[in-house]
Design brief:
Structural class of chain A: alpha/beta
Order of helices and strands of chain A: EHEHEHHEHEHEHEHHHEEHEHEHEHHEH
Largest sheet of chain A: 8 strands, mixed
Distance between the termini of chain A: 13 Å
CATH class of the largest domain in chain A: Alpha Beta
Oligomer: heterodimer
Strand content of chain A: 15-25%
Strand order of the largest sheet of chain A: 8-9-7-10-6-11-12-13
Number of helices of chain A: 16
Number of strands of chain B: 0
Radius of gyration of chain B: 30 Å
Shape of chain B: elongated
CATH superfamily of the largest domain in chain A: P-loop containing nucleotide triphosphate hydrolases
Largest sheet of chain B: none
Radius of gyration of chain A: 22 Å
CATH topology of the largest domain in chain A: Rossmann fold
Distance between the termini of chain B: 75 Å
């Protein structure tokens, strides 16, 4: 059963009761704000509860504008990537932090009270939020573990073998995912039109994409006009090297807050039309990593069979805990062994830094997250030859190239397992 | 004329295991025939190159469109679309591959030369669209 957290103030209790009853009638389990959790020493439990909810309904009013606890609940919801539904009781001050922090343009109007029509709108919004695709972030603080190539190939396999609709967001300033799929000429044209993630994160200026067009900047990656998969999306929001501005301290807090809101809007638009939104993140902990962590329903950490990967994993767990304000549950997380062969599988490499499945299993936190599927070392999991044209970008992926059958099977199985876990 | 050690070794290696009578016969044969006839008889015959099957136009199209990554059906689609645009003709053709595309273009009154030129112009068009290389700043 799906969980909803209802954030409200005591002054709005009647409306909150009506909303909770409507949601429960629609099959939701509702956890309302309560004095029990709103205690300084119970803050971690409050964040945990919000983090485990599918949606958060915020009852916006003058009382909630003045509430520090409601502000904490909204921050926890944002940091945990929860979908937020706003019900505006009508007396919310225009200068409220709620307007500045959340997109109140789609708020359900409760100024005439909690009438049936307004309550039905809230139930509808909750249903829509639950039915959208899952957001999956490819993350590892260590670089070179195969995040980008795996992201492209795992979900190309899900698209081609299981007809899944997939959207990628290239959130790495090095934009290797974009380079993997698109030729330099095409990338330049996209960049000239500002149809990259840089245009999304900039709320103002010449490079900004209008807010209503955010969902429309994705580039189709499967341009085949035939086949059963032509109706399923396979698209990319291209990366841009100018993203580095958001990794340095050159951008103001206001810029970052606007970037955060616009990124959430982009993810919401892509979720609405895809089975999965895949965020390829940069291998470090920056504002961009925060965007990925706060919007992701599920995190995939690829690891190479070497001990340094384990350090990256440990760091990742710390970073996620810091961003979300709570510990990561192993069900929200998948560890995927990448580039294994018979020697690394058996641990007979003789290398001091070799990492085996058994060692990951022995680590208390990661054992529950380690996927039984693994990706073997394969030559097809490399970049496409540069002297060839990929007029249809999906053709550069391993699934469309000749050979590498074990790798293709492994990719299909791993992608299916990840999408099952992400549900 | 006496043979030196290297020549003697060469002969021993070549005729190893033969009886005296056999060797005498061989020497007589070598003396009586020309080099050309001896070589033709001794060396394995060259295999004649197998005659290639299929349509030479299709082979040429495959070679021209080889730099495009993807299945033949997609290449054929692109070729048809490009030729249709180039000749300003509506072609309701959905080819299964390059061979099928060539067959159906011929049926639509396109000459081999036009089809060949279409493939080359498609490659030039794609090179313009996708052919940029990464450069070091």
């Amino acid at each position: 059963m799906a969980n909803a957290y209802l954030a409200f103030e005591q002054a709005d209790e009647d409306q909150a009761r009506a909303i909770a009853a409507e949601l429960e009638r629609n099959g939701w389990t509702v956890t309302p704000s309560s004095g029990e959790l709103r205690q300084a020493e119970k803050l971690p439990a409050l964040v945990q509860t919000i983090g485990e909810s599918h949606i958060v309904v915020v009852l916006a009013s003058r009382a909630s504008h003045e509430s520090q606890w409601l502000q904490r609940e909204v921050v926890a919801a944002l940091n945990n990537g929860r979908h937020i539904i706003i019900a505006n009781s009508g007396n919310l001050p225009t200068e409220s932090w709620i307007h500045a922090t959340l997109d109140t343009s789609h708020a359900v109007d409760l100024s005439q009270g909690a009438q049936t029509e307004a309550l039905a709108k809230i139930a509808d919004a909750a249903r829509t939020a639950k039915s959208g695709g899952r957001v999956v972030a490819m993350l590892n603080i260590k670089g070179g573990v195969g995040k980008t190539v795996l992201a492209a190939n795992l979900f190309a396999a899900a698209h081609l073998a299981n007809k899944r609709s997939i959207a990628f967001i290239d959130l790495d300033p090095q934009h290797n995912l974009t380079q993997y799929f698109l030729s330099p000429g095409e990338r330049h044209r996209i960049r000239d039109r500002n149809h990259t993630i840089y245009g999304v994160l900039n709320a103002r200026g010449d490079h900004s994409v209008p807010a209503q067009d955010l969902g429309g900047i994705a580039i189709p990656l499967n341009r085949a006009r035939k086949g059963n998969d032509k109706d399923a999306n396979f698209e990319l929001v291209a990366g841009d090297e100018r993203l580095f501005e958001f990794t340095l301290d050159t951008r103001s807090d206001r810029d970052k807050a606007e970037a955060f809101t616009r990124f959430r809007a982009l993810v919401a638009a892509l979720r609405a039309r895809n089975d999965a939104v895949i965020i390829d993140s940069n291998p470090c902990a920056t504002f961009l990593t925060r965007l990925a962590i706060t919007t992701a329903d599920h995190i995939i950490a690829p690891v190479r069979p070497e001990k340094y990967s384990l350090t990256g994993l440990n760091m990742l767990e710390h970073v996620v805990r810091e961003v979300r304000g709570r510990a990561l549950r192993s069900s929200e997380f998948s560890v995927l062994l990448n580039g294994v062969n018979d020697r690394t599988r058996s641990g007979e490499t003789g290398d001091a830094d070799a990492l085996t499945r058994g060692e990951i299993n022995a680590a208390p936190f990661f054992s529950g997250a380690l996927l039984s599927e693994e990706i073997p070392y394969s030559a097809v999991l490399k970049s496409a030859p540069t002297d060839r044209f990929a007029a249809n970008p999906i053709n550069v992926t391993a699934m469309m190239r000749v050979g590498g059958r074990p790798a293709k099977e492994a990719l299909t199985n791993a992608a299916a397992a990840i999408l099952r876990r992400a549900q | 004329m006496k043979l030196d050690a290297t020549q003697a070794k060469l002969l021993r290696t070549a005729f190893k295991g033969r009886s005296r009578a056999e060797l005498k016969k061989l020497f007589a044969l070598v003396r009586s025939q020309e080099d050309r006839a001896l070589l033709a008889a001794a060396l394995p015959t060259k295999k004649a190159a197998p005659k290639r099957k299929g349509d030479p136009l299709v082979r040429e199209l495959e070679q021209t469109l080889k730099p495009i990554m993807g299945p033949s059906a997609e290449k054929a689609d692109m070729l048809i679309e490009h030729i249709a645009k180039k000749h300003r003709r509506k072609l309701a053709i959905e080819p299964k591959g390059l061979a099928d595309a060539a067959k159906r273009l011929r049926a639509s009154k396109f000459t081999d030369e036009q089809i060949r030129a279409g493939a080359q112009s498609l490659m030039a068009h794609l090179a313009k669209l996708y052919g940029d290389r990464e450069t070091v700043v």
